[in-house]
């Protein structure tokens, strides 16, 4: 325990995924009571088992984060089960890559809904309580490709850049109430998604990373634990890159 998070309640969206599960684990190790949404019972069971093996707990609630009504219910269920939410990590996300000329409305909207509109859906029911209690930590997971753009990702880059606009505006609105809002922009991380990329392409990506390797999910998670802590009270409205030096701006 390094970050003084004992007893804090954390909601991590997309906790069943590669980076989300590491965030859940590190926050639970730091003493948080951790909740996540899920869509697949199987993936939740696998996360629960992995955490249980390490002596850690996780509370799962079914919720599609593109649905605002379901997100209101999620907030109520988490607060009834674990208590008022102190830490929100808007982590769930998807890609639907294709060049803009081939970008269908469905691919565009799915990515904007999941990566950007979800931040509204999940944050809105929780923000009043955080402000009233005078404490809150909101961490939005963006991407290196929201900072620099990426061929084949107009939808994803737009959503992830938009997410940081949301961070900066909300950070200013809530700063006096003890609530911080930050963006974390990871580069390429060794999750199943990235490890499924053919080895030659993955090696070409790694060749562009000055530290010479992919990031580890736990490295992202430990940055989030710091941002969630009291020690990070003066960090707000920031977009923190964690990308092995691949993009510096
Ligand atoms: P994963 O695909 O492993 O996990 C994504 C998570 O989001 C899953 O739990 C998934 O649930 C959930 N999710 C997706 N859509 C919805 C939805 N509509 N409602 C509820 N839950 C949903 O991704 P990563 O762990 O790799 O990525 C996590 C975040 O980090 C994302 O925002 C991603 O954009 C960002 N990122 C990732 C990088 C990487 O290299 N991996 C690099 C930079 C940023 P389900 O399993 O049910 O689909």
Distance between the termini: 32 Å
CATH class assignment:
Alpha Beta
- Shape from CA axes? globular
**CATH topology group:** Rossmann fold
For the largest beta sheet, what order do the strands appear in spatially? 3-2-1-4-5-6-7
**What is the total number of structural domains?**
1
Kindly state the percentage of residues in helix.
Answer: 40-55%
Biggest sheet architecture? 7 strands, parallel
| CATH homologous superfamily identity | NAD(P)-binding Rossmann-like Domain
> How many β-strand runs?
7
Overall mean pLDDT stands at: 97
- What kind of assembly state do the chains in view correspond to? single chain
Please work out how many helical segments DSSP would assign: 9
Bound molecules: NADPH dihydro-nicotinamide-adenine-dinucleotide phosphate
